[in-house]
Amino acid sequence: MRGSQVVLAVVTFVSMAYSGGMNWDVAPHLLDESARYGFLPSDLRDFLLRCRAGLPFAGWLFAILGAHEMGHYIACRRYRIMATWPYFLPLPVFAFGTIGAVIRIRAPIPDRRALFDVALAGPVAGFVVAMAARVAGVWTAETVPAGIEGGGALFVPPLAAGWIADFLRPGETLAINGTLAAAWGGFLITALNLFPAGQLDGGHIAYAVSRRTHRLFSRAAIVLAAGSVVYALSLWQPPMYLLWLGILLWMRDKHPPVWTESVPLGRARTWLAVAALLLFVACFTLLPVRLFD
């Protein structure tokens, strides 16, 4: 791991922690401690206290992103494919404090099986950690008292996670916290990466099945993203997939060939490709965020 990667990881974690303290885990009881740190400049004091409040959010989201990228990295190592450790990408002005993480693959993918395994490992690893975050977030969430009304935003959990609150906290309305926000972001990241198009993880999986499958699913993914944007706008809701639609249109059905195209995927991996598509459906939400009065 290079020094630049360590610096990016630290900066990204701090950025996520501050965003968590600003947007998700404000934790007034921590901000009330400002008098104890009166010797610090007010801006620095506020920054440190908000970072402290946002640690649960940052810890879980960092773990989700790290698991996703390390899944790819470990799969690359298995096939002796040269790849870097993850590069975390900070974005302090964003609600999550980051735009994700990436690894660089520095060698050709040898065959369809290797492409499939490398592509699938990341989303599965990230999904597992996101599920753990969802359970922890539901368990620690505050209950919204009955009768409280007002405008706001509802962060809609996907099919894969919506049942957890009903199982652990039946009949309760839960306020979002940093851990729940990280889980929600993790499911969204998994769904975005599993869009079966272009050179996304889902696109790699589709290409590993066949070029024809990749071509058809890439077009279907564009239709799905466009339909989601139109549907959101028709309801005066934020078009969450607008940027992703632009990315899908840019990538279309382009995909580089693997080193040996003739190696078959095999029956087991073909069924796993179906499971990956079901995982995409389970993590995808037509309206991830709903605004209400």
Strand order of the largest sheet: 1-2
Order of helices and strands: HHHHEEHEHHHHHHE
Mean pLDDT: 92
Taken as a percent bin, the fraction of beta residues is: 5-15%
Number of domains: 1
Largest sheet: 2 strands, antiparallel
For the CA atoms, what is the radius of gyration? 20 Å
Summed up, the helix count is: 11
User: Distance between termini?
Assistant: 48 Å
Low-pLDDT sequence parts? none
Query: What structural category do the secondary elements indicate?
Result: mainly alpha
| Overall spatial form | globular
Write down how many β-strands occur, each being a DSSP E stretch of 2 or more residues: 4
Give the helix proportion (percent range).
55-70%
Could you characterize the architecture of this molecule?
This protein is mostly helical and 293 residues long. The chain has one domain (3-292). Helix content is 60%, strand content 6%. It is built from 11 helices and 4 strands; from the N terminus they run ααααββαβααααααβ. The protein has helices spanning 3-23, 28-31, 42-53, 55-78, 112-140, 159-168, 178-194, 201-209, 211-234, 242-251, 267-283, and strands at residues 87-90, 98-102, 152-155, 289-292. The strands form 2 sheets. It has a two-stranded antiparallel ribbon. A two-stranded antiparallel sheet has the order 3-4. A hairpin with a 7-residue loop joins strand 1 and strand 2. Helix 4 (55-78) runs antiparallel to helix 5 (112-140), helix 5 (112-140) runs antiparallel to helix 8 (201-209) and helix 9 runs antiparallel to helix 10 (242-251). The protein is globular and about 70 Å long.
